[in-house]
Amino acid sequence: MAIHPPEERIWWNERIERGELVWIGIAFLWGLVMFSMMVYWHIEGKQNLSNEAYRIDPAVFEKRTEEFTEKFTVREDETGYPIAKPPAGGDVYMLARLWEWWPMLELEKGQTYRLHLSSLDWQHGFSLQPTNINLQVHPGIEHVITLTPTETGSFGIVCNEFCGLGHHQMVGRIYVVEAGKSQ
Amino acid sequence: MSIASAETGIIGGIAAKFRTCPATGLKIDLAAEKLIKANAVAAVVFLAIGGLFGLLVALTRWPAVHLLPSEMFYLVLTAHGLDVLLLWIIFFEIAVLYFASAVLLSCRLATPRIAWAAFWLMIIGGLMTNVAVLQGESSVMFTSYVPMKAAPHFYLGLILFAVGALVAVMVFFGTLVVARDERTYEGSVPLVTFGAITAAIIAVFTIASGAIILIPTFLWSVGYISHIDTVMYKLVWWGMGHSSQQINVAAHVAVWYAIIAITIGAKPLSEKVSRTAFFLYILFLQLACAHHLLVEPGLSAEWRVFNTSYALYLAVLGSMIHGMTVPGAIEAAQRKNGFNNGIFEWLRKAPWSNPAFAGMFLSLVMFGFLGGISGVVLGTEQINLILHNTIYVPGHFHATVVAGTTLAFMAITYLLLPLIFQRQVIWPTLAKWQPYLFGIGVAGISLFMMGAGTLGVSRRHWDITFSDAQVTFDYPATAFLMMGLNGIFAIVASLGGILYVLITVGTVFFGKKVDASNIVESLGPMPQKQVSGAVHEYGGAGTWHLPGTYILVTVFFLSFVLYYFVNWKYLSEIWPLS
Ligand code: HEM
Ligand SMILES: [Cu+2]
Ligand SMILES: [Cu+2]
User: Fold this and answer.
1) Could you give the number of structural domains in chain B?
2) Residues A123, B230: contact at Cβ < 8 Å?
């Protein structure tokens, strides 16, 4: 029994039964399939995490985001947040800080943007809902994500990395409109 | 009988007092026995406290109840994670290590004094961290990601606890050496001990990672170090955090083998296969820390793919092997016990009214179907994009560490009470129902948290209605329903947990004494009322006919494949990103 020493002293010479061998074979092949899926998705799949990231001083990132916002703000949200609408296909900035995402964005459906994300203080979680894209945001690292909205509407950005007492108040917004239109 | 028949063995010049276990014939070192008791009792106390915190958390996350205010919620959630994941599990694991070494090898425990020092270090460290959290300045979650800062004694407590655990692991290794030198067993160590060795080796790696990250963080919290890299912190932290989950898996798989050996006389189908499967854990599981960093900026895709596939999923392979050999061993033993009709008589006539067996089997099934499958899916590089930091994550690990590890530990408690505490379980009828109650509750919270997570609900979040937020977002009604159901099942799980604590504590204090005359009945209903030596001839070629197990693993495999590709489908529907 498993609580006693093996009956065969030289247990590593035991024969392995076919049933066990077959199962090990299946499990091993399945592991290979799962491994290949990840590689395959990097080649053919459309949802992969960007590898583009830079070390950055939070103050510099703050300044760039402010310049971006100043340049492209088209209107204010009813909550008072500026809404920036960059040219289709361009660079977009959003910063995370205790406890807000700033600014709000308006993007066009079907256009591809380079979204620059970073935090000014602690780690935050960029959880774009309801489409359900979740990214970790670090201070001192600028993450550049190439993103293509495929549906119109108003999308929430819930912070899903615990970031202190105001964590549950940290919500941002992205509006997506039909190409060539605005809200 | 215990003290009366205690003999003093002088082996290797060192005196130790032993008693002989009337059920197994094993010689039990009384010093080891005391330490097993102390560690197990400490474990149960922390489970009681931490479990209560878990209930409070779940009731707060039930939108219609929303029990605690926000600050209190984050405090209690931090305490919940620490008390159950660290204190309950690790104290119990130390008890398991001492049991698997000193008791199963009929050996004296190496250096009981040092083992007591380890115990007290762990207690002091555990209490210190708890005090830090309850004082309110350290609601940083048990992961304490920098640059969020806790009070210095939060980290110091964790360090003391880890040092204590490391010392205890060393006592375990020392005991193995003593057993070999003093020839207390013949041939190789039993499989259960082998599993425990696996757990202990991983523990050394784990605690080393913990020291590498927590000591600088402590120095940073008192101002000696000015900066800690946030990504590096996470990488090393999960070197501890994830590997410690591998300790749990190795430990609870060893516990499964022990329970089926004692309750139905099962022995491994093949020592070689089961041991190799344990060995795979040592070789490959540590790499899994990477799957906590799948959506972090700045790590290369190659690194993520290599590490998440745990070098071709070889560690998952280890678990899948146990997933077949454990039910296979049960089926083989039950057929030997005379339940040889049809495909499933062995399973139908298993000792379902024995809480040790029932708890073990539920743990096996839920760990595999709920925890294992969801874990692999969650840890798939790209699929993590749709699940990272959602409440799917706690859903997954309540299936592994609660339905799997905690339930397995609860199950073996029903054997340790008569064998080590020498007490008969009080309230056998309630004990019979306890694993089912707890199991159903935990299955519920796991499934509903996973369901809500699939709909994007965030983990560690006080208010998904965003009532006091400036900008808001509306989660779908189904998400609210899931969080409500989660609350209901949390109550069921808590009832099961409370029952466990009451039965255990009640038995330790008020249980009827166990001796040679009633030991066998004290172990609960069994198909063959003989614990040792009953099943000796089967195994080897020819006796292998396990149709039931093949059907079970086929069902498992098909569910796995189906669920895996369903999640790729979900992923393919989100906005393209690269
Ligand atoms: C009555 C039993 C339990 C209930 C009702 C329960 C419920 C919960 C809930 C609702 C959460 C919060 C999810 C969130 O908001 O992010 C949680 C978190 C957690 N639970 Fe449990 N739990 C129970 C037992 C356990 C046990 C026995 C363990 C470990 C062995 C455990 C480990 C954890 C951990 C590690 C966390 C994560 C804490 C964090 O995010 O920092 N739980 N639990
Ligand atoms: Cu945040
Ligand atoms: Cu947050």
Assistant:
1) 1
2) yes
Judge whether B278 lies within some domain.
yes
Say how far apart CA B550 and CA B567 lie, in whole Å. Answer: 26
The confidence score (pLDDT) of residue B14 equals 62
Contact state of A16 with B300 under an 8 Å Cβ cutoff: no
Predicted local confidence at residue B205, as pLDDT: 84
Answer whether B101's CB lies under 8 Å from B175's CB: yes
Query: For strand A124-129 and strand A133-137, is the pairing parallel, antiparallel, or unpaired?
Result: antiparallel
**Which H helix or E strand runs over B7?**
strand B7-11
What's the gap in Å between A160 CA and the centre of ligand 1? 17
In angstroms, the separation between the Cα of residue B80 and the nearest Cα of chain A is 15
Burial class (CB in 10 A: 0-12, 13-18, 19+), A8: middle
Of residues B286, B375, B288, B391, the one with CA closest to residue B323: B375
Q: Which CATH superfamily includes the segment(s) A53-177?
A: Cupredoxins -  blue copper proteins (2.60.40.420)
| Rounded distance between C-alpha atoms, residue B576 and residue A46, angstroms | 5
The tokens describing B261, both together, are 């050996």
Q: Which two tokens stand for residue B525?
A: 């209903």
| Pocket lining for ligand 1, CB < 6 angstroms | B 51, 54-55, 57-58, 61, 77, 80-81, 84-85, 88-89, 141-142, 391, 394, 398, 401-402, 406, 445, 459-460, 490, 493-494, 497
B23 part of a folded domain: yes
The pairing of beta strand B14-20 with beta strand B7-11: antiparallel
CA distances for B157 relative to B207, B215, B272, B316, angstroms? 14, 11, 41, 33
Alpha-carbon gap, residue B332 to B267, rounded angstroms: 8
- The answer to whether B280 and B314 have CB atoms below 8 angstroms apart is yes
Residue A143's CB is within 10 A of a number of other CB atoms, namely 25
Domain membership of residue B89 (yes or no) is yes
CA distances from B381 to A151, B353, B389 (A): 25, 42, 14
Single pTM value for the model: 0.94
Distance CA B309, CA A52 (A): 22
Domain ranges of chain A: 53-177
Task: Tell whether B578 is covered by a domain.
Answer: no
Residue among B163, B251, B242 nearest B207 (CA): B163
Q: Give the β-pairing of A100-102 and A104-108.
A: unpaired
Q: How far apart are CA B100 and CA B88, in angstroms?
A: 18
CB contacts < 8 A (A, B): 310
CATH number, domain of B500, equals 1.20.210.10
Contact B575 A170 (CB under 8 A): no
Segments forming the whole domain that contains residue B281 = 2-572
Instruction: Using alpha carbons, select from B156, B275, B251, B254 the residue that is nearest to residue B202.
Output: B251
pLDDT digits (tens, 9 = 90+) for A40-98: 999 999 999 988 999 999 999 999 999 999 999 999 999 999 999 999 889 999 999 99
Q: How confident is the model at residue B542 (pLDDT cuts 50, 70, 90)?
A: very low
Which segment of A165-174, B156-165, B429-438, B540-549 scores lowest on mean pLDDT?
Answer: B540-549
